[in-house]
Amino acid sequence: MFYDPVLSGNQNIACGTCHIPDFGTSDGMSLGIGEGGSGLGIKRTAGIGKLRIRKRIPRNSQALWNLGAKEVRRLFHDGRLSISNDYGNGFNSPAEEWLPGKLDNILAAQALFPMISQFEMAGNPAENQIAGAVHDRIDAAWPIIAKRVRTIPEYGEMFVAAFEQIHTPAEITISEIANAIGAFVGLEWQSYDSPFDAYLMGDETALTDQSKKGLDLFYGKAGCAQCHSGKLLTDHQFYSLALPHFGPGRTRRFDPYVRDVGRMSETDRLQDAYRFRTPSLRNVELTAPYGHNGAYPTLKGIIRHHLNPIASNQRWNREDANLPSAPWLEEIDFVALEDSREQKRLLSKLDIQTQTLSTLEIDHLTAFLQSLTGAASVNGKLGKPSSVPSGLKVER
Predict the structure, then answer these.
(1) Catalytic residue at 35?
(2) Catalytic hit among 71, 96, 97, 120
(3) pTM greater than 0.90 (yes/no)
(4) For a tag site, which of 144, 177, 214, 230 has the least CB within 10 Å?
């Protein structure tokens, strides 16, 4: 189902459209192209005519590595999905009390939301039943999607075989669908066999001399490990890095500005303005571009930004943003960047201190980050199917 467009409103886009193994389970673009686009990865276009996209996806497509780990308790760049019992269903989510029950884990819960996002997979209200249902209430579309899946004979048989509580296809709900996708993502993209892992296991030859110097910088002078700590190289917290503003932003309800206030959009606390979740650095070499909006195309670029965020923000070149051509959207692509008051607000919120590294030290640090790339694990365990039970096209 991860690669099956049947879960989308117009049956033309799948989870695997924006999370592509060949791009480190991201898509290679700064801001994604969802419903209405065509193609995969950096070759994806914004569509044409009436079917063209109406909005860019506000944030960079996140990599999926190791999201099945028990320590992962929040998802999305702003952490708007978290493990919690605030609503009696195990999660604090945009669906609040309307989130379906019997979800196995946070990955299963996360799988539900792109399906009902207008610009990701659902489509526009006049186009299909799913998109229209979402506008009635956030949970109205999920039963429609579940019916689509359970009426496909092969899926019906597979669910009956896989779930003990399912005896006939008619019993399949969106919860089983989400649990299946969550189980796949948690299994498929586990990364644990990088040179760094081998080094930690006692193989002194696993890291080059340059990588070892980068390791010393990472855990020492450069201070990277203050936030990128633990097995997944993230503390799962939220920080403001003053990354350059561009794109439509993810605004709060009734927000009059084109901007992205990050964690504050979830908590409504001013102190959380412009803060975003610390990403894991596992396989970071494969997941360019970097930042919550993909502002930097290279590892060295995002490293330099961390060293001096304000200076990097002010000299950032908008040509560094990989935005597929969409002339009808260009008027708002850099509105936030050109808004001097919003820029001042952004630059006034900063959670990291200026550091100084030489060009050689940046090279060493980059080499260490490259040592976090897995070996066989980056190929996944099950791979991409050549066909799916719905009979719809699997994009390649």
Answers:
(1) no
(2) 120
(3) yes
(4) 230
